[in-house]
């Protein structure tokens, strides 16, 4: 009995040492919370919804390689050429060592549980090039440099995949290099009044152990449809979880609740990977030349169409003169 007690005590001591070592492996701030500060990449090819043909959430190395080849062929090999600007985006998302076939983990089928009304909104949403061009307000809010990928939820972009996090006891500040959008999340802050909204919505955060939980409400209605077909409306509630798995892996998970848009709450997750690549200046539309030219080009197209229509009109017949 005494020998067994010594073994149990020894195992407990080893477990305590291992736990302490694991805790030390995660960088922490002076106030003891996990330290998220630094540069992070969310570069991967895994889409929000389950890859067509994939039957499970996690796949083997060989299966992942086959799926990546299919994605590259489908999307256009020239866009994901190894010599392109972002060669990192040539693999699936990797979460705690496993290759993922979708960011959505619940529902288990990896699909968004959109209502019929939400599907209609998504299907009617025009691509950027098909948007109206009568006024600047007709264009996408991201194209107008008003909101970008830092909004809740943080969706993996095709380009601009580097991000910076700055953390203080009172704030977590998230900066995505695409659109250079800065999102400041108050830790322990109270929600703002419902009529005081911003393009990024109202985000407040609290610590639950070593996980930072962020709740975002009051999204603006100007553009409900986000990347990947995600819909976020004024009544939506987005709950994000930031958790350090190791010093180089930041697990990001979000849940969206909105009975008007989704048949049930759904959850997605992926991991940010620490990188040494800093966030460079992103000028969006420098001088707004591109934006102005979109509208000027549309007016020119309309002018040409008007001229062509006038040329097609039959000319009025000349009145014949009567004989004297």
- What fold name goes in the CATH topology slot of the domain at 105-274? Lipocalin
From the 3D coordinates, which CATH architecture of the domain at 105-274 would you assign? Answer: Beta Barrel
Radius of gyration: 26 Å
The average pLDDT is: 82
**Number of DSSP strand runs:** 13
Task: State the end-to-end distance.
Answer: 140 Å
CATH C-level category of the domain at 105-274: Mainly Beta
Secondary-structure element sequence? HEEHEEEHEEEEEEEEH
Strand order of the largest sheet: 1-6-7-8-9-10-11-12-13
Kindly name the structural category.
Answer: alpha+beta
Q: Which shape, going by the Cα principal axes?
A: globular
Q: How many strands, what sense, and barrel or not for the largest sheet?
A: 9 strands, mixed, barrel
Q: Percent helix among the residues?
A: 10-25%
Percentage of β-strand residues: 15-25%
Continuous helix count: 4
Describe this structure in words.
There is one protein chain. The protein is built from four helices and 13 strands. It is an alpha+beta fold. A hairpin with a 2-residue loop joins strand 11 (237-246) and strand 12 (249-257). Mean pLDDT is 82; it is low at 1-23 and 77-87.
Short description:
The protein is of the alpha+beta class and 324 residues long. The chain has a domain at 105-274: Lipocalin (Beta Barrel), CATH 2.40.128.
């Amino acid at each position: 009995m005494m020998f067994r007690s010594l073994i149990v005590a020894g195992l407990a001591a080893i477990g305590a040492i291992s736990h302490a070592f694991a805790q030390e492996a995660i960088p922490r701030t002076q106030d003891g919370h996990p330290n998220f500060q630094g540069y992070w990449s969310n570069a991967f090819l895994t889409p929000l919804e389950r890859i067509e043909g994939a039957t499970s959430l996690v796949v083997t190395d060989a299966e992942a390689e086959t799926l990546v080849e299919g994605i590259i062929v489908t999307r256009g090999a020239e866009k994901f050429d190894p010599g392109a600007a972002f060669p990192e985006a040539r693999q699936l998302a990797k979460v705690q060592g496993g290759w993922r076939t979708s960011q959505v983990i619940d529902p288990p089928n990896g699909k968004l549980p959109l209502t019929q009304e939400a599907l209609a909104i998504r299907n009617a949403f025009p691509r950027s090039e098909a948007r109206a061009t009568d006024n600047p307000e007709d264009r996408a809010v991201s194209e107008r440099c008003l909101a970008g990928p830092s909004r809740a939820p943080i969706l993996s972009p095709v380009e601009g995949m580097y991000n910076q996090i700055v953390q203080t006891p009172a704030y977590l500040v998230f900066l995505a290099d695409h659109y250079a959008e800065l999102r400041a999340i108050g830790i322990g802050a109270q929600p703002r009044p419902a009529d005081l909204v911003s393009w990024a919505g109202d985000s407040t955060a609290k610590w639950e152990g070593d996980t930072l939980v962020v709740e975002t409400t009051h999204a603006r209605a100007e553009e409900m449809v986000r990347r990947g077909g995600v819909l976020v409306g004024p009544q939506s509630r987005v709950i994000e979880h930031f958790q350090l798995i190791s010093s180089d892996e930041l697990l990001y998970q979000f849940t969206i609740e909105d009975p008007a848009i989704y048949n049930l709450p759904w959850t997605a997750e992926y991991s940010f990977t620490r990188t040494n690549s800093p966030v460079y200046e992103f000028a969006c539309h420098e001088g707004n030349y591109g934006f102005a030219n979109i509208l000027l080009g549309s007016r020119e197209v309309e002018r040409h169409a008007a001229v062509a229509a006038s040329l097609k009109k039959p000319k009025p017949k000349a009145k014949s003169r009567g004989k004297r």
